[in-house]
């Protein structure tokens, strides 16, 4: 399945680059028209469709959950703003106070999704600004996904207690094959029969956490789908936990292969040891980039095809209607493909983490 998907990648990338070029060209032409010298006798025209802004607004975090409508008059769910300033203390209010960035409130203002003080100072770590602990769209989506995961597994656990000697059915029957898949094909295969059990809670957690958030980012893609795993902070935290668990469970043989690899000539050993030491931190970095880039790229590709309808429609109604059929077809196809990618990325992240755990626990070979 993965090999078949890889065959389509060159064609998909060609389509994406082609349509992205059209969108960028249309956006630049519209910006040139807007920046041209205006006629004082004519009234200012409303701003046209901006594909780049729509894409960036979707993939970036926000202090309100946009549902529909234009940026000037959107329908959005306000979220709590929690700020700490060294001089004024905590400030707690709703993001609706900013009126979608139009007015400042309580000494703060919001521009492009970032909160500033009225004198233009953004949040910082050296107390020159303030700390932002607000419940953003991605944070709210995290809470929502965690609630779903807890409800699922608490229900499954209670079902096991009630029906110990019965065949699984319902939700339990759907979840049990996935748990067995993580246990047999990931944990046991990469770590081994002896040590796999103690890593199962972590492996199950990251597998279902990544998978559920990947699905929530795509179902529905509109309106207001969050981009949790496409936000680089989330993969960084997950990969950091993988690194900590790997180092905490590493044995003498693991460190010996890093700093005194058997069979390596002494004059080459410093170079090999340096590369192996860098590899300790390169492995979690690969986990971050793989998850972040794949999910972010999937969202952008879907939005590029969707925006093509409005870019063509700005030229003429016929062009918009003509572009809508292939654009919607490609959007549905990429969205279905991303459902597979969401599962694969959860599997790859979990499997690579299990491999790192297995490497940390590897025993010396005896001939």
Summed up, the helix count is: 9
Fraction of residues in helix: 55-70%
Extended strand count: 7
End-to-end Cα distance, whole Å, is 39 Å
Q: What structural class is derived from the secondary structure elements?
A: mainly alpha
In order across it, which strands form the biggest sheet? 4-3-7
Tell me the major beta sheet: 3 strands, antiparallel
Described by the principal axes of the CA atoms, the overall outline is globular
Gyration radius (Cα, Å) is 25 Å
Taking pLDDT < 50 over at least 5 consecutive residues as the criterion, the unreliable ranges are 1-46
Mean pLDDT: 79
> Beta-strand level of the residues, as a percent range?
5-15%
Order of helices and strands: HHEEEEEEEHHHHHHH
Describe it for me?
With 367 residues, the chain is mainly alpha-helical. Helix content is 61%, strand content 9%. The chain has a three-stranded antiparallel sheet, with no helix packed on it. Strands 1-2 form a two-stranded antiparallel sheet. The longest helix is centred in the C-terminal third of the chain and has 47 residues, at 269-315.
Topology:
Elements lengths: L1 H34 L15 H9 L4 E6 L4 E5 L1 E6 L3 E6 L13 E4 L2 E4 L12 E3 L4 H26 L7 H22 L8 H17 L16 H16 L3 H8 L9 H47 L1 H44 L7
Antiparallel strand pairs: 1-2, 3-4, 3-7, 5-6
Helix pairs in contact: 1-8, 2-8, 3-5, 4-5, 4-9, 5-9, 6-8, 6-9, 8-9
């Amino acid at each position: 399945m993965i090999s078949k998907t890889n065959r389509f990648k060159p064609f998909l990338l060609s389509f994406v680059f082609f349509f992205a070029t059209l969108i960028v060209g249309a956006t630049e032409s519209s910006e040139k028209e807007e920046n041209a010298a205006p006629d004082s006798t004519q009234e200012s025209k409303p701003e046209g469709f901006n594909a780049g802004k729509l894409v960036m607004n979707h993939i970036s975090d926000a202090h309100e959950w946009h549902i529909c409508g234009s940026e000037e008059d959107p329908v959005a769910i306000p979220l709590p703003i929690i700020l700490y300033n060294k001089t004024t203390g905590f400030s707690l209010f709703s993001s609706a106070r900013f009126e979608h960035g139009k007015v400042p409130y309580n000494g703060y203002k919001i521009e492009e999704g970032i909160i500033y003080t009225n004198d233009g100072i953004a949040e910082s770590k050296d107390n020159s600004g303030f700390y932002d602990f607000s419940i953003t769209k991605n944070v709210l989506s995290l809470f929502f996904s965690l609630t779903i995961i807890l409800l699922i597994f608490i229900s499954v656990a209670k079902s096991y207690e009630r029906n110990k000697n019965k065949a699984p059915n319902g939700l339990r029957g759907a979840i049990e094959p996935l748990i067995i898949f993580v246990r047999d094909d990931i944990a046991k295969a990469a770590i081994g029969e002896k040590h796999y059990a103690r890593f199962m809670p972590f492996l199950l957690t990251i597998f279902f956490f990544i998978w559920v958030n990947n699905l929530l980012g795509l179902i529905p893609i509109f309106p207001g789908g969050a981009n949790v795993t496409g936000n680089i902070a989330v993969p960084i935290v997950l990969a950091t936990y993988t690194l900590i668990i790997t180092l905490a469970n590493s044995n003498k043989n693991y460190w010996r292969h890093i700093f005194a690899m058997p069979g390596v000539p002494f004059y080459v050993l410093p170079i090999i040891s340096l590369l192996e030491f860098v590899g300790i931190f390169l492995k979690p970095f690969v986990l971050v980039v793989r998850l972040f880039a794949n999910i972010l790229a999937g969202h952008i590709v879907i939005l590029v095809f969707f925006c093509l309808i409005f870019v063509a429609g700005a030229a003429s109604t016929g062009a918009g209607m003509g572009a809508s059929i292939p654009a919607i077809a490609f959007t549905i196809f990429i969205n279905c493909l991303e459902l597979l990618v969401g599962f694969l990325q959860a599997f790859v992240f979990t499997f690579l983490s299990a491999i790192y755990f297995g490497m940390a626990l590897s025993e010396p070979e005896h001939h």
